[in-house]
Structure formats: structure tokens, C-alpha cells
Amino acid sequence: MEYISTRGQVAPIGFIDAILMGLADDGGLLVPQHIPQLSADMLKSWQRLSYQELALEIFTLFVNDEIPCADLKRLVDDSYATFRDEDVTPVRRINNGLHVLELFHGPTFAFKDVALQFLGNLYQYVSGKTNSIIHILGATSGDTGASAIEGVRGKAGIRICILHPHGKVSKVQELQMTTVDDANVLNLAVDGTFDDCQRIIKELFADVDFKHRYHLRAINSINIARILAQTVYYFYAYFQLANKGQADKVNFSVPTGNFGDIFAGYLALKMGLPINKLILATNENNILERFVREGVYEPGEFRGTYSPSMDIQVASNFERYLYYLYGEDSAAVTRLMGQFKADGRIAIPADKLAAVQADFAAYGVQNEECLDAISDYHAKYDYLLDPHTACGVAATDKLADDGEVTIALSTAHPAKFDEAIRLRGIAQTYPPQIEALFDKPQHQTVVGGTNDDIKDQLVKFF
């Protein structure tokens, strides 16, 4: 398998070079040169595999022979040995029509652990095998930062700098990042929004000279390894229902702000997983919902919500979807992204909008709707949703038809967002790993929101 850029100006490269490049050197995003097609027989043969066995099968399709099978198996086993549930990502039945895919059993209680435990180990492996310098630069709206730091803290040959929007993540999310005191970790609290942090990251990676001089590597979902790792749990969740005879008309409802998690589901669909409907759940920062409904991709006014990890206006993985929407036409993608940079807006024609609406249904959940879902499901089913998962469940209630079964992705443990949950008078007990954070000192540097502000910090750190 080789990887190419959505903008067509990078020669095909292998898997290891792709994860090291992160953002393509032409400013695009890397995608597989072709998407593996899975037969019904292959899917059936995978149906009763463990999570680790399934991950190894899927990764092998995209890695080929660059990493020996025994080494890849060890990376997978080491990555998911850190999870608290033996199923890694268990599926919980809520009612006849709704199941929840719990993605929060990793070390930082967030779905990002599924990909970032693997990517952290992969970076360490590549560093050791190639004698490479790994300087990771990432931005977070809350969960990526803690998961990325946990994946590489203390590891030889790797340093990591994470940007987060100052004062715009939950307290637990902030503590999970900033109480880490390892010498290879730098936390920068940026005066701005997550979109500002993400813009800085993409612009620094697009500065190819700076990127190469300081050996910058990507941890955000611009890195294709993140997407591939997240694809696994769509297959695994589907198989859990198939093993119980419940796999007809399965929807996936995905809370998303950056389009990475739902793009992983779209990739699974393209590979041959028989998904009935991909439900795209957003919050009041609903640029993606408006695109699905109207065919216009245009940032609106930023709104702080109870689901802060989705408080995103510009979705970094959206370009990957445009690439497939336009028939893998890199020239068209380059034109559209140039138009977006110049005008802040993309509008697609009616035939493309029809294709989008065949791929996705979308719903933007208002703040009070999010809290209603938390309180309603807690009262009816004694199941506590975090506010992001609540958006996915609320969107399911709006968009799933009678007789359909939906798997809603639960992206974080509710303890990470107690501020929102307490608004509905619901008390919860923190897991001991989270409770312990409140007694630890914090380590972070508050900085301005310009590229130069961040560059100054990176030069000193790296």
C-alpha cells in the first residue's frame, strides 16, 4: 500500500513515510492509493476475532510488509493492553433500537486513546528502527492532548508539544494534560479557540523548511494512522451485533467536530462494511450539519457549548471526504481548498449534495437538547452519557427510523465533563485515576495565538 496527497503533488510513499510526513508536503492530506475491498466471506471470517486480532488484520491491509507481522502484532498487543475492558471497545445495549459503543476504556478515558496508544508505540518503534528524531506537535480541543501525551510520555527519542485553547477545555481535560511532569512534554495554553490552534498546526506543518528542520511529526487526525486505527472499532462493533443476529440495518451515530471519527466510519463503509446510515452529530458549531443539509461549507460564529471537544468550525479531515466526493480528483480538491482559503466558503452543486446526503444524515444538537439527553437516558435507562455522546444519542432520536438499530459512539467517560452533568443535578463518582488529578501541580505555559508565538516556544523546547 502506498499513500498519496489529496492535492496530488506528492509522489506515492509508503506507510512509515506517510505517518512521519503527517500533513502532506503540498498542504493536502494523505490517503491510501486505493481502498482495500473486503468480500462477504472475509467479513464473515473476521466476525469472531478479538479486538486485537481484528486490528492486526485491518492494519496489515494498510501496512503491507513495511513492518514485520510479529512486530506489528506486538505493537497492537502493547497498545491495547492498557485498556480496562477486555473487549477494548465494548458495545452496551440501551434499548431495542440503541446500543452504545464505549470507546473510553483507555488510560485517559477518551476515544482518542484507541488511536493514540497505537500511534505512540508506532512512533517509538519507527524511531528505534530508523534512528529518527520524533518531535510531535499537536492541537487539542480537549481529549487528543491527554491521549497523545499519555501515548509518548517518558519514551526515549520522542518529545511532544500540545496546544490547547486556554480556558476552553473541561477541568479534567486540562488536568490530564498539565499535571504530566515528564521532561519530554510541553503544554501550551493558547489565547484563542481550538480553530486557532489547529490553524497554527497546519500552517507550521505547511512550512516545509521549518517542519524538516525541527523534525515535526503529527499526532492529530491529519495523520492517516489515526484514521486507520479508528476504522477498526466500526468493524468490531458491527460484528458484536452480527454475532447476536442483530446486524440488519445498523446505523452509526458519531459525535464529531473535526470529521476524523466519522471519516473512519466512511472509510469502513468504502471498504465494504454494510453500514445502513452514518449519522453525523454536531453541536451548535454546526458547519458540518449545514454542509450535509445545504451543500455549503462555511464557518459560522464560534459558540462555547457543553460538548467542548466539538467546538470546532473548520474540520481538518473534511478535505479527505472532498477527495472521494469528487471522484479522487486532486485538481478539484486543490481548487476547492484554494477557494475556501480565499473566500472562507465552499458551495457544491446539486448532484454532489445528493451524493453527500446519500453518505450521511446530520443533526446539530442544541445545548439544552444535549442536557435533556443526559438526564432522560439517566432516568430511563440508568446510563450516564457524557455531553458528546449525548449529542450522538440525541441525533439518533431525531434521525433513526423505526426498526433500525443504531450504534452511538461514546467518545468519553462522563467524569471528564462533570460541569455539564451537574447542571441536571446528577451526581457521579470520579474514577480514582481522575480523582487523583486534582491534587497534582499543573505545568503549562500560556502563550499568544500567533505562529511566531508558538515557533518561539518550539525552538526552545525541541
How many E strands? 15
Determine the structural class based on helices, strands and strand pairing.
alpha/beta
Report, as a whole number of angstroms, the end-to-end distance. Answer: 32 Å
Query: Main β-sheet: number of strands, strand sense, barrel status?
Result: 6 strands, mixed
Total number of helices: 20
Low-confidence stretches: none
Strand proportion: 5-15%
Could you say which overall geometry the principal axes of the C-alpha atoms support? globular
The CATH topology of the domain at 91-109 and 225-422: Rossmann fold
Average the pLDDT over all residues and give the rounded result. Answer: 94
Oligomer: single chain
Rg over CA atoms, rounded to whole Å, is 20 Å
Q: What is the name of the CATH class of the domain at 91-109 and 225-422?
A: Alpha Beta
Order of neighbouring strands in the sheet with most strands: 3-4-14-9-10-13
Q: What share of the residues lie within helices?
A: 40-55%
- Return the CATH architecture of the domain at 91-109 and 225-422: 3-Layer(aba) Sandwich
